[in-house]
Amino acid sequence: MESLTEKVLRYQRTGEGLRDIVGELAPRVYHFPRRTMGWDEDACGEFYVFVHPRILRLVERFRDQGKPFESYLWAVLNWQLRNFAREQTRKEREWRVSLRMGEETGTETAGGMDEAAGRCGGAPRLSAELQEAITTPADRRNFLFLVLKCSQQLDPSTAAPLAALAGIETERLLDHAAALRALRAGREVRLVKFRSRRNRAFAKVLLLETELRREVEPQKIAALRAALLLAGRRMRSAADRMGRVGMSPTNREIALILGIPKGTVDSGLYWLKKKLGTVYDPDTLRSA
Q1: How many other β-carbons are positioned within 10 Å of the β-carbon of residue 242?
Q2: Number of domains in the chain
Q3: Residue 267 lies in a domain
Q4: What is this structure's pTM?
Q5: pLDDT, tens only, 120-143
Q6: Three-class SS state of 99
Q7: Is residue 46 part of a domain?
Q8: Helices (H), the chain
Q9: Which of 58, 67, 75, 120 has a CA-to-CA distance to 186 between 20 and 30 Å?
């Protein structure tokens, strides 16, 4: 069976077999952030959209120096992952400004970019710049994805102008939001469970620390320290699990509700954020 290195070299010689190469590379690129950084599925999708236009150049630049193509691919993806992470960090403030759907309410959301996307509370006040940026049918469809990312805070008092800009009926938008909230019901139950575990462990840590300060017998001090170490681990584990329970709907859930491929949501949100990032100056956040 022909190896990936052989396929790449054959393509460089003949120009044939690119489709098979891309098909073999796609899952490796998609899952790379999860394997190396533990990123969630949505972030993996955005990373794939970021890397996909560079795949052809990656294949063409490979030079056979005795090492397999996979080794070259790993090094390139590591570099691209760092570039992508820096790009996302730089754009996070622009992402917040691009929403500008109202005053911030301080609502807690879970998880990286979902936190940046999840502040939709208050009466919507869509800026003229935002309305001018959302012009094409593709823009409106991508804006719908963004609004559904904020479905946790969506209600009849905030839905109408957002639905109008997204090119969808208000009732239909609210139906989609209700369906997404129903999908998240189990996740919210898990969040409550992990929060309860964290709080119990935290209370035990405080109790053990109090007892440890008063104890004088070496044997009991050792036992208390062991119990304190275990309670601390349980508290950190529960907090870590809480952080992995995303409050905003995933791109896969949005795709399921709308009956479209998940990749369409991944790429739509990626390009919308890229477009809005050219419209807004992050420094205007202070006056938002």
Answers
A1: 17
A2: 2
A3: no
A4: 0.56
A5: 444 345 667 777 888 899 999 999
A6: helix
A7: yes
A8: 4-14, 18-37, 41-51, 55-61, 69-99, 112-117, 128-133, 137-149, 156-166, 170-183, 185-214, 218-244, 251-258, 262-277
A9: 120
Can you give the residue range of the structural domain that contains 39?
4-92
User: Is there a domain that residue 260 lies in?
Assistant: no
Pull the structure tokens for residue 211.
Answer: 């007892």
Q: Give the pair of three-digit tokens for residue 162.
A: 């957002």
- Structure token digits, residue 263: 């990749």
CA distances from 47 to 31, 32, 111, 188, 265 (A): 9, 9, 16, 27, 13
The terminus-to-terminus CA distance of the chain in angstroms comes to 59
Tokens representing 205 are 């840590």
At 112, the amino acid letter reads G
Of residues 162 and 279, more confidently modeled: 162
Q: What is the pLDDT of residue 128?
A: 75
Pairwise CA distance, residues 216 & 123, whole Å: 59
92, 117, 135: which is the final residue of a domain?
A: 92
Is residue 259 pLDDT above 90, yes or no?
Answer: yes
Output DSSP code: residue 108: -
CB 46 within 8 A of CB 266: yes
Residue 268 lies in a domain: no
* Residues near 18 by beta carbon (within 8 Å), at least 6 away in sequence: 11, 56, 59
Which residue type is seen at 235? M
| pLDDT per residue as tens digits for the range 174-204 | 999 889 888 877 777 887 888 888 888 888 8
The tokens describing 72, both together, are 């070259």
- pLDDT surpasses 80 at 108: no
